[in-house]
Amino acid sequence: MTAALAAAAGAVGFSHSSLASPTQANSAVNLAALSLDSGQQLSGITTARIQARQLATRDSSRVQLADTTTTKKQSAAAKLAQARAAKLNATQALTAKRASALATAKAKAEAAEQKARESATRCEMMLSGYHITATFGQGGSRWARNHTGTDFAAPMGTRIGAVMKGVVIFADWAGPYGRQVQVRHEDGTVTWYNHMSKFSVEVGETVYAGDQVGAVGMTGNTTGPHLHFEVRPDGGEPINPMPWLRNHCGLNP
Question: Which residues constitute the signal peptide according to the record (predicted)?
Fold first, then answer.
């Protein structure tokens, strides 16, 4: 500073040791300049110093403003990232909860279905797409005595299922009956499935209502593909299958 400016700066309470920043230095110089007689011209060096310090002050203010803006942006970005992470965690938790609920519901439904399937009283028709061609007790030259079952005609190879849960007690050739399967049910009733083209079960196997035991054929004494179905309470003499299917099984052939 010039002697006059230095003296003025001292007069307003500033010293070289107290000018810790460009802002403070600039203030000191401005105050010193104002304290001079208005008619006195500042030297070129003094003017340059004032301008340099003013420029330094502006640059410092810009840096501080830029730092403040960056900090605010970083803080906003951090908050946004936290919010997104919280939302993602909530979504993942909800998805996991729904998946668990679905798995539990599926397990319960499968357990109920399995329980229903294994029920000893559940019944299903032996085959579909059939038409009845001979009834119980019907006479005719095709049988040695009156007809002992009901004939369900269907295309060759049509799937034949067990009418109820039971255990296979016979699966072999049975003379005029052709390929025959016998199933004993839990109440002692035995059902016969005859003239089949193939077996799908073995003796000792447990079958449930609707489980395949064979396929429609025309083995044994027959003139066309059909299932000859018999019902024998306690394994004894045959009875009319139609009332049994209706009354015992709730089916309507």
Answer: 1-20
| Domain boundaries, position 97 | 47-120
- CA neighbours within 13 Å on the CB side: how many for 167? 7
pLDDT tens per residue across span 7-59: 444 444 444 444 445 555 555 545 555 544 444 555 677 777 777 777 777 77
Residues 103, 191, single domain; the answer is no
> 219 with 141, same domain?
yes
List all residues 6 or more positions away from 178 whose beta carbon is below 8 Å from its beta carbon. Answer: 194, 195, 196, 217, 218, 219, 220, 221, 222
Q: In a 10 Å sphere around its CB, with 0-12 CB exposed, 13-18 middle and 19+ buried, how is residue 82 labelled?
A: exposed
Judge whether 207 and 201 are in contact, CB under 8 Å. yes
pTM attached to this predicted model? 0.59
